[in-house]
Amino acid sequence: MQADLPFALDLMVACLRAGLPVGGAVEAAAKAVDGPVGTLLSTVTGRLRLGAGPEEAWTVLRDDPALSSLAREMIRAALSGAPVADVLTRLADDTVRETRAASSAAARRAGIQVIAPLGLCFLPAFVFLGIIPIVAGLATQAFGH
């Protein structure tokens, strides 16, 4: 879900800057994005089309951790009259930054978690290919074969 959100937000920004109203921009993003993000945006679109106010329409997203900031910002923008495109651009940038940080943290954890299995694989190979031949050679020389 986190991967679809920046694309949906960027698409909404492009639609808004092209002159579509908020409902049309949300509808275009809902149609373009599959999965849970598209489904939830379709729900918002349906509520807006039925005449719901911004707060009522966007509350459906508040329960989702990835989309709660979108709901909060859209309600705030609608009530304050702030330019929605600027709000969505900032939110998309924040989402991309958070996704990259989470990916970097996961990559660091994976690197650390791989050490134990690799050690278990390389240690026996080192013993059989490095230590045993040296010990066998020393034993042969010491016992005079």
From TrEMBL:
Membrane protein topology class: Multi-pass membrane protein
Source superkingdom: Bacteria
Cellular component GO terms held in the UniProt record: plasma membrane
Domain Type II secretion system protein GspF, first and last residues per copy: 9-129
Subcellular location: Cell membrane
Transmembrane regions: 114-139
InterPro entries: T2SS_GspF_dom
Keywords: Cell membrane, Membrane, Transmembrane, Transmembrane helix
Alphabetical list of PANTHER family matching this protein: INTEGRAL MEMBRANE PROTEIN-RELATED (PTHR35007), POSSIBLE CONSERVED ALANINE RICH MEMBRANE PROTEIN (PTHR35007:SF3)
Protein name from the UniProt record: Pilus assembly protein TadC
Organism: Sphaerisporangium rubeum
Lineage, opening ranks: Bacteria, Bacillati, Actinomycetota, Actinomycetes, Streptosporangiales
